[in-house]
Amino acid sequence: MDASSFIAMQIAGGDDDEVADDMEHQIITTAALLTAGAATSRLIRNEQRKPSRNYLTRRELPPNPHLGTAWRSLFESQNDRAFITTMGFDLATFKCIIDSGFKQRWLAQPIPRRDASTSGSSRPGGRSLDTDGALGLVLHYLNSTMLETSLQQIFGLIPTTVSRYITFGLDILLQTLHQMPEAKIQWPAQQEDFERYTEIIVARHPRLDGAFGSIDGLNLPTETSKDVDIENATYNGWLSEHFISSVLVFVPDGTIISANFNAPGSWHDARVAYPIYEQLRENTPDGYYLIADTAFPRGTASIEGRIVTPMKSGQSFTGTEEEIEERYLFDREVVSYRQTAEWGMRSIQGSFGRLRLPLPVADSQRRANLMETCFRLHNLRTRRIGRNEIQSVYMPEWRKTREEAEIWANFENILFGKQRQYDRVARFYNHPEYQQ
Question: Would 303 disulfide with which of 74, 149, 188, 299, CB 3.0-4.6 Å?
Answer without folding.
Answer: 299
